[in-house]
Amino acid sequence: MERERRLGLGREMGDGWRDHEVLVYHDLLGMLQHPHHAKVTPKFCKQYGRVGDAINKALLEYKEEVENKVFPSSTHSPYKMNDDDVDEFICKLQKQGLSQAASSAADAAEQFAAAGTKK
Question: How far apart are alpha carbons 43 and 26 in whole angstroms?
Fold first, then answer.
């Protein structure tokens, strides 16, 4: 009788038979640096990097720039909408009952237009 093939995720399956082992690349690259994750990283996994630190640093920098309205700037916003497209977009938001989103979009369009006139 032929036995079933089995895929392991780091635990023995009772009889010790495993045909393949899954190694999650997050563990391999050290992407998750939360203290909880250190407790659950498989013992059979070797970390070849600690990219999680760089990822966390980059995400915190991004969050800070967005909150401080540094990003996105005109350098990173090469696409422009004409006034008719902006009005149509706002109208569609309102028709879908998203009046707060429509109001925010209108405010953003005004701010963008005002910033474009400053040199």
Answer: 14
| Contact (CB, 8 A) for 10 and 21 | yes
pTM beyond 0.85: the answer is no
Q: What is the 3-state secondary structure (H, E, C) of the chain?
A: CCCCCCEECCCCCCCCCCCEECCCHHHHHCCCCCHHHHHHCCCCCCCCCCHHHHHHHHHHHHHHHHHCCCCCCHHHCCCCCCHHHHHHHHHHHHHCCCHHHHHHHHHHHHHHHHHHHCC
Backbone angles phi, psi at 49, to 5 degrees: -170, 175
Question: Strands (DSSP E) along 1-119, which ranges?
Answer: 7-8, 20-21
Q: What is the pLDDT of residues 42-60, one digit of tens each?
A: 777 788 888 888 888 999 9
Q: The tokens of 119 are what?
A: 């040199």
